[in-house]
Fold these 2 entries.
Entry 1:
Amino acid sequence: MLRRPKPSDSEADLLREQEKFLTSGAPSAANVVRRPDKRRGEAGGEGGGCNREDEGRPRDVVTIEDLPDELPTLTPAPPKKSRFKANRVTFEDEDAGETLDRHDTHISAVLSRIVERDTSSTPISLPALTGIAFPKVLHRSETSSQVPLSSAVGKKSIFARQIAAQRLKEGKTPLHCAPEAAQTPEHREQNLPTETSMDTDQCGAAHDHPTAVSGPSLLSGQGLGVPDSSGETMRIHSENQAKLQAMSQSEILQEQNKLLSQLDPRLVDFVRSRKAQSVPSSASASKQPRGKSSKDNFPLEDMSRESASSGAAVLFQKPREVEMEREEGAEDLPTSPAVTEKDLLLKPKKEWVHMDKLEPEKLEWMRDLPAPRRKGTDKAMQARFDFVGTLIPPDEDLPTHLGLHHHGEEPERAGYSLQELFLLSRSQLIQQRSLALGTLANILSKAHAGKYGSVLKGSVVSTLLDAGLLFLLRFALDDGVEGVMSAAVHALKALLVCEADEECLDYTFSWFRGLASFPLLPSAQEEEEEEDEGLPEILKETAKEKEERKSDHDVARQDVVKGLLKMKLLPRLRYILEVFRPSPPVVQDVLQILTRIARHSSSSATQVLECPRLMETVLSEFLPTSWTAPSSPIPQSVYGLPLASAVKLLRVLATSGRHACARLLNSLGVRERLPLLLSADPSELLLEPTEALRITTEAYRLWAVAAGYGQACKLYIDLYPSLAKTLQSVHTVLAPSDPLLPLQLQRVLALISLLTQITHTAGCHQELQAGMLSSQGEECPPPPPVSWGHVTGLQASLLGHLRGFVKSLDNPVQEDISLAVIPVYLVYIEAYYHQLSRQNCFKPVETLQELERLVSEVLLPLLSHNVVQGLIKNLKSSSVVCNVQSSHLGPETTPSLPGLACPGWRDRPGLVAPSSPFPLLTALGLLLETITGLHKGLSCKFSGLLLSEPVIGYLRSTSQAMPILSHTRAWLVRHEHHLLYLLLRLAHRLVSIEREVAKYASLYHQVALVLLPWLLPGSEFLGHELLSTIIFNKDFISEGQSGGPEAVELGELKLQEETKPQTSPSLQTVGALLREACIQLPSIRGCFLTHLAHLESSVLTSRDALLGRNPWISSHLLPELTGPTVPSDWPFLPLVSLYERTGVSDGGGLEVEDLPQGALQAVTHCLQWLLLLEVWREEALKVILPVAKLARLSCVFLCSSDLFLERPVQKLMWGLFRLLTRRSKLDSLDLNVPPPGLASFQDLYSALLTQYEAVSFGDRLFGSWVLLPLQRRYSAIMRLAVFGEHVGMLRSLGVTLEQLSIPIERFTSPPEDSLPLLHLYFRSLVTGTLKPRWCPVLYVVTLSHVNAFIFSQDAAAQEVEAARHSMLRKIYYLTDEVLRNHLLLFRLPQQRSEFGFDLYEQLPPNRAKRLESVLRQQDSSDDKGH
């Protein structure tokens, strides 16, 4: 190893090291090369004038690897600006290579012939003779008077200008300026190029002065190579002027555009610059048309390039075809006049050094900004926003005092792009950082509100998140400047929180199960687990370990909230609240951010609770135990004052689980703080009236959530006087004239919701007391401190309120108030009677009398009121299920940050709109479900509701709907599912006793079938009830009782007469099978309930929540929204379950174990139910693809070796096969689409073929099933599998053409075009593998395809034609006369014939001629061979 030289080494040391290096033979770090000297003509070795003396003296040039040829500058040079770049519109998808090819169309544009100009005719002028020996010394003070600057073309020295001035005094023309310099401005204006004249609206100048012909303004004639070059130039110029005078203005414009399209833009700019120098700037300015700006020729540039420092994505505006003018010649506009000395506010003085020369290009930035170009384009332009987040149209001209103009790439356009805002957010100036973050917050708020959907391409939120907004805001939160930190908090709140979503959730809190909500988790994404493949289970990483191993960016890309938690957001927010003690808006933003994080999931809520000192700071500062009244309505600080947003945060945290709620109540002291807020009237809370009402409303809601777990009920006993006083003043506080009516209304609704939850909890006291006594050591929840006796006194008061509000519907002033509060009162009445029936003190006779009075005095008048009837008419228009394709522009949502899409909910029809009947009908249906269960005689009085036209129309639309599952719809669809379920429950009460209701039984049954696979997590109990009471109820399958099976049989017989006689068992047994299925409905129900037993725990949890069993509820946060509770193909569940239990994949085949006990009965029941649905409820199965049905039914053959041979299974499978292969169904059966759960249908078919060869024993049903995918329109892969790998099965595939219910034409048409498959067809025929007695169907199919192939006249490739000839010759020389006649004389398939096809008596002439020609070619080739 050679050491590096040291400063202390002597010359001897260096020589010694050099010797070591040379002897080692190591490569040198620097090479000595011979570089040619271009100045001496040595470039490329072709310099003919090379100096021979230099050849013997080579120059040594040392080059070091990776060292640039030019030395780098010590200071960064300013970026070079192109003079032509600003004159072009560029777009994000424009290719630079195409642009280069468009302008440089040939190599001659770069390289051209270089010719030395002829100077023989150039005049030579000698200096004038003077008596002065030496020229006079020039001073700077005298140069300005020598010659005007405008007369000098280009940059000239002082001496050259002095000589030019002297020649002008002598009356001579300066060199290289003739004849232009001597022209007057007027003449020059006349002689401007036509293109420039039109740009300055002087098109008629040449027509006004036809005789004024002067020299050209650009050319002097030098280099023409003729003696009189100037005269030749003038002659050409005169011809040009004459042509221009003879042309009209439109023709001139047309020629001008033609020239401009052909010329290089740089050449055009050069001509314009020469014109600008030759024309005085004052004249140009005076000719400038009004309304045109000096910078109009600079088009808009799309900022498609990302800044290397910012990384911010660019958002583009959609084209504006209507408002924007299309200008064909975008580059034809005049250039801006140069800045003159007159335009300067401060005139330069001659004594100023280096100020005698005006540099217009350096003064352009001082000009007024031009008006934005309104250029029509079909491409998008970059979006720009003002400081409040409003999108600025590209053609809008805003004044500069708004501060929206800046020195960017588009200085004439007002506003800031997202890229520029990202740059400003990292500025060193505090004001710029704050301004950028505030603008981003406003943009995010408007994006959540859906303001940009119609004008911007893509999603603003997604674009910002992809550009790294989350990390930008997180870094800004750590800023030490309070203003920047506050702006970052506001921007983060705008990103995470949608205020309209929170308003909707608060609005629906008092609905039935409104306090429950779905966690706002992103949809689960399947992650690749390639790293864990092949590892044992012990060594595989857990989900938590994988999550911890991910980077912050990866986590945030999938889940924004989880990414923020991983970036330690919660400790920073605690520090801001505890140390910074920011202003009230920042505090509100922080509390709203924490609320949104708590809504994310129960684990996120737990992290909020467990963050050190966070909740203690919130409770001590914003929910204190004592406070003083603020000095002003808008306090400067909210520290030490109770805040409604802090109570709401506690309520959302409590919703996440009963343990979190107990921790808040007991450990954090919320139990002691609630009485402080609720024991006094809101006006006595020493708070601003609006805030006082909000905080008491949130306190009631928090208490209601706690009471929903059976907690904090002791407070009810303590605060009973205050609650009773508040109830007495309900009608008083809900006065229409009260300006705080909306807040008062929400407070009353929250109070009634609280009483409903306390009633449910009190109703469970007796059951828990008995359970605790009989538990014998088992775990049992303790009984709540409130019992049924504590709540019985509320019913009379609240029922009186309900009567009053029903009567108030007649008053138009109080109509809206009554409609808002009646639903929550109905929910309370239902809770009371539902729990009353479970108490020991229940008196049936008195209760039934009360219910009759309730129905006659309250419910029937309410239902028949014209206001309610008008509300019911909005049922269909307010539905979420029926209006999947809503026309309104929804707000932006991103997968990593799901929302509820609620902005604008008050202004559009919807389930939560004020005109929606859903809250009222749901509450009424809930009450009817309870009272009709107690008093069955009351059911008939409500048949009118089910038979009303709006309800029937709504149910019909529902039965045909196909809703989409998403976070934005799930929280609303859940409430609609409640109403549908309650309507079906009412129909269940009436269908057996009301004839009119029974007429619509099939409609109700159809709705129940489509509702079951829609039910979301948390509604498992509703699904269980539908399966138990309605779906398998014979009263709802009216066809089974009114001659339905007989009608099916008659239809099949009619079809048989119209088509052909069939012998498949399906025709004779479908009617009988349906009758048997109707008889077996109870057993079928038991079969499906058994296969859904794995949902038992979810059903019990859902039952506790829906029936008000509060002490057993573990969380009001619904399960994660991963999909519907029951799969859409649930009717096939027993088949799939049996296949998964018995079929084990092994080497491409299947090892079939013994069938479990009861498997045959389960399969039979499943097939009976499927047959019934296919015949009478076909619409309910439309969500299942036909290929999925075929794949699921194939499990019958794969799960056992003899299950399909059982007689009941055979009959049912024949019936289903007949239904699946109807002519109307075959076209929709697409086997190229992979069935759900399978990679492809071909894999399943391969398993079917293996199973058929192993266990079929020639079964006709199994054979028909195998033949179905061999139709011509399906993939040839399956046919290749039969005739290639599984050719042995052809010996046992004995299905006849009469037994096959599929037309044979679907197998034979169009002719086969796969050459390998045709070879296999031919081989199976000639080798005897395929014979008509073994496999009649495929024998006909192969004959048809081979015959069509050998006699085809279509042009084909040489390989195909050779195969045709070869097959035809081999067929002709076959020794099997029968097969040869079949192949040559085949005509058409014919099912009634002996073999299933017709034959020609003899070959048709064209076929005979082809056969003869093929044989003749063979004979001639044989002769040549001999």
Entry 2:
Amino acid sequence: MYSEWRSLQLIIQSDRGHMSVLHSYPSNVGKDVANAVVRPLGQGLNSSSATSNESILKTDKEVKWTMEVLCYGLTLPLDGETVKLCVDVYTDWIMALVARRDSIPQPIVKEPNLYVQTILKHLQNLFVPRPDYAHNQISLCMRVLVAVQKLARESVNMSRETWEVLLLFLLQINDTLLAAPTVPGGLAENLADKLIGVLFEVWFLACTRCFPTPPYWKTAREMLANWRHHPAVVEQWSKVICALTSRLLRFTYGPSFPPFKVPDEDAILIPAEMDNDCVAQTWFRVLHMLSNPVDLSNPAIISTTPKFQEQLLSVSGMAQEMMQHPCLKQLPQIFFRAMRGVSCLVDAFLGISRPRSDSAPPTPVNRLNMPQASSTMNTTPPHSRRMRSVTVTKATVKTSSGSTAHPPKVTHQTSTTSPLSSPNQTSSEPRPLPAPTRPKVNSVLNLFGQWLFDAGLVHCRLHNGMNRDGSMTGITTPAGLDVRRKPSQISTENMVANPLFDANEFPDNYEAGRAEACGTLCRIFCSKKTGEEILPVYLSRFYMVLIQGLQINDYICRPVLASIILNSPALFCSDLKGIDVLVPYFISALETILPDRELSKFKAYVNPTELRRASIHILLSMLPLPHHFGTVKAEVLLEGKFSSEDSSLHDKPVTFLSLKLRLVNVLIGALQTETDPNNTQMILGAMLNIVQDSALLEAIGSQTELSVGDSTHISFKSHSRNSSGISMTSTGSSEATTPDSERPAQALLRDYALHTDTASGLLIRSIHLVTQRLNSQWRQDMSISLAALELLSGLAKVKVSVDSTDRKRAVSSVCSYIVHQCSRPAPFHSRDLHSMIVAAFQCLCVWLTEHPDMLNEKDCLIEVLEIVELGISGSKSKTSDQEVRHKGDKEPNPASMRVKDAAEATLTCIMQLLGAFPSPSGPASPCSLLNEETLIKYSRLTSTSKNHFRYFVLDNSIILAMLEQPLGNDQNPCPSVTVLIRGMSGRHAWTMQLYHQPRGSRASQKAFVPEPHPPPKDDVGIKYNVKHRPFPEEVDKIPFVKADLSIPDLHEIVTDQLEVQHEKLKKLMAKQILYENTLEKISEERLSKTLFPDPVTECIPPPPAQEFQTARLLLSHFGFLSLEALKEPGNSCRPPNLIALDSTLAGFFDDIGYLDLLPTRPFETVFIFYMKPGQKTSQEILKNVESSSNVQSHFLEFLLSLGWPVDVGKHPGWTGHVSTSWLINACNGSEGKEQEEMVAPDDTGGGIFNGEKKALYYADALTEIAFVVPSFMESSTDSSESGLTSQEAETQMDLLPSLLKQTPLTLELFPNHSENLSNSQRLSPTQKSKRLPLGRTVPPLGPETKVIVVWVERFDDIENFPLNDLLPEINTGVETTTNSSTSLRTTTSDKDVPVIFIHPLKTGLFRIKVQGVTGKFSMVIPLVDGMVVSRRALGFLVRQTIINICRRKRLESDSYNPPHVKRKQKIVDIVHKYRNKLLEPEFYTSLFQEVGPKSLNP
């Protein structure tokens, strides 16, 4: 930079301005003269009287002569007062440039610049070290430095020549004291900090008022290189360059760039009046004033300065001995401080810096002496900063502030943070994003890359062929290697254990500075913007640094390894070209870290929890790679040259698929040994990711996994770094009896390799591992428990065939978990504990609904029902084999009402959902899509009045609506009743008929018709005409006796009178015979004509009844009409088991409709946005989804993986807004409009699913989700500002009566009657809440659970996402629902809405960022910050995360009640308001009375 300029060092050395005339005389002469001359001058200065304070020197000659004496006096020993008086005089005189004083001679006042220049040269003599009275010399030197400081600060008359002399003076005295090797306790050591501090301060003042010429900069740079063995030099350089950088960034990147805050005492070193151009020029020159800081890692360079060589010649020592000079022992610490300073500058340019409370980084050599303030920094995180044109990132904290050198061994952790970790980042604080307007990676590396790359390879053992350029490693001579290879010649202070050297042999080294450089490089490359190009030379050097830093075969450099891991969480998410070749090296490093529970060898450098967290982040970003790249081979061509070992195996390329087993093993090993809750939850999320991805991969059959043996062989043999993580140097026992937590990596790997190469094996292993730990270590921790239960719920949905015993294991473990939590002592019962139990019941429901066949097994069914009983009643009936407590004998004592509600929901799930979902009407509604209006419409009734229904309530929990008229499509005249059953689980329609015959008999004949008689047969046999006699013929042959003749014959006694009568009688008889014969003939004729059988005389059964009071029959048959059922229980507030409701009361059907509006399962709403690069406004984002040309094809594929399209106008489920949800009979009359409403979905960017006509929908037995893609509509923006016009308001009020008395009852909260409005009055999604009918009672549906998913093409745009502007677009109508117990909520805070950002990487994978999930349930799985997921699993994982976020939000809400509880409360309310309080006789009488009109359709 200054090659064409000459240095002033020779001028300084040849300058004799500090010599006096008295130096030519014998020393005693000069001493006597000085003592005699200086005393009166000093007395005059110290006198209090004004007259005596006036200078005794009047002429120029007198002053010059006196100055010759003063010059010599400054060289005298410090045993007298002479030197002090000389200092007093000169420090007084140089103030002539500041202000006039009487004590200053007039010649100096007249020509201050000329005399001050001479005085400064004379004062150099004071800084020549004296052997004695060092304390006095220190104080005198300090006085001079303070005076010089004041002179530079306050003087306004200094000429350029004086400034230059002043700068040369400071350079000369610094060089005099600091260039030589440090003497412990010497003058240089005590004054170094002040000397270099005054030099920099005066230099900056000179830059402001009289900018130094290039020779001065060159001289300063050359001389400063000779002082670098003093820690104060590098420390002060770090201070001033940070202060300059803070000023530089302020005007270079504008006020919107995250400010680089430095301590006030550092900031004031830069004069406020220094203009921007001067700051920029000064900054670049000062940055390079230290020369190459990597030289500090090489004692051979530092010890070759002239003063070192001069001392070497004076003692006739060897060069090697000079390299071992005691003062060089501080070089590792100095090297670290220099790299820490560079690291701070890099972070400042990236916009991720935070101020330090101390002015310099803490000393890394000794952790015990480290200032604790560094871990308790008080800063104002710039969360609220916003740009005018570009939104500022929430730059909160460096991801890592560096490493330390090896500290002494300590037996305990002295602080929660460590030098390698961020000094002000808590374990739960998210890593910050770099500033959006940060410079490019290439620009930062152009400034600092050479230093950082060289420092990252300091003392690395490269192959000879790779070490032609000495700058690559910072070692220019072979002697540099001896520093590391000859530990016996170096002091053994501050030692640390090392796997290759005994702790007593290995010295403190340069690993701390190297670690800082490696970490800084990682942060630089992780800050790469989306689509940014990085020079290949930088990438290759960076990868070389990483390969060396991740080296774990020959020598593990733990500070470097830890620094790389800590600062590389986003390395595999940044689309760096070729980064995937480093996957095997990172896997090997993770195999060293994650399966190690204690990380005892890393505790000296870093907080183990943070190291494990960073390792897990890297693991999360690498998990999808084996499946994604498959058989693609990863190969590092230079790999064999980095090791002196045989490279026959090392150069063998490795397929990504062969790395899967190792990644899975690391994941499982990490879970076995992890103790931090946040880290554990991240691992649990990763497990569901890998299991689901494997299952989907196997389902499509695209690739076949390698066999266990082949995979294991490859993972051990195919890569030079692969076996290192499980090398035999690991400590610990590998016996089978050793628990997992204490076993080394290779033992864990050997066991976990079994059966984890398939999706089913992974699933089984995951279930076993999670269930075992859920009921041991994790059950006390709420956050881990919830995550583990969410993982089990997710595993239940993975479509992989698993043996029933493994499924039962999951269910049984959840049951055991509930038993343990319920049985904990009363003091431990809290809301959090009950939340864990509720979550366990929800997990149980998921497993049962996904695998209903499990309950076919008796033991599983018994166990589940026992747990339900435990939740509802608080205890099990069967506590042992002998003791059984019946239900009636138990006192209900559940753990809490929330637990009881969850258990009841589980029981409802078992009894009503298993095997019955989805219903024939589809998954959109678990209820019947029928109500009173529908049933009346299809009945044979002329009236559509709902009064035809009889309403009863059973057990105070079930409302029966009974319709006694047979439906129109029913031809059988049998007793039938249609019942609408409204209970806690929903509305269900049943039609029941009374039958007395089997189905076959009913089909073959009419009901109630008897069998016909057979017809008579009259023509059977022969008919004879026989005259019948009253007596047999033999009677005529018997002779008469007298007795027979005693009665005379008639003719014997007949007289004339009798004859007349006799004749008359004969005639009558003849007539009678004739009449009877005629009658007989007529009768015979009529009989011959009569049909058989005679309907008049035949005995036939009565006809069947046609009119039935089926409601009474049904209730009677079920036994509900007994007197006991109608009596109110004694000493109880509960109503009877059966009561009637009076449907004629006002408001009854409104309350029934209200009950139908209460959903039967939780509903979630997801709003999906698409963000193109550089967009900042909501309108730009909303317009993206209008056309498929505006969005990536993967986005549309992602949408369809979340749910299936539904027509909002016909959809009976949740649609994303209360005004269009839960519709019944919405298809009526809309067939004609269907064609004109259809929009061709071919050219949509997803905007068709904006909730107006279509939406995406997903539902299972336990939840339903609406996915809405808001799109830009002109009407929504226009109406949002004007609201309702008066005409529109009147229209709404006119519609109100018809809305309340609508014929087709719908299940919408706010019916959308847009067909009655003009086009200008149609409602937009963003304005529905403003146009709802007034006075309508709406059920409280809170807490509102909605999530935002953002597809962001450029990851840096996440900070610009206008969440607040888009809040009006995510209105669901739930915000405005209110009742007596909930207040009106019209606004939603942006902090209340969780946001999941999805960023597509160039590899085809997707990077995830989750923000806004706050509260005690902050981390929700499976998607966690920094995770990378595959295209296959993206939809499933996003959906599962949304379900879990909303479940946790409901768990956290104090006001939330499950759906069945809300319905139960409403039923109780209906019973209380509309109960028909009749006496028993009146009730029985009402059963026999008809309801509604009786007329039937013809």
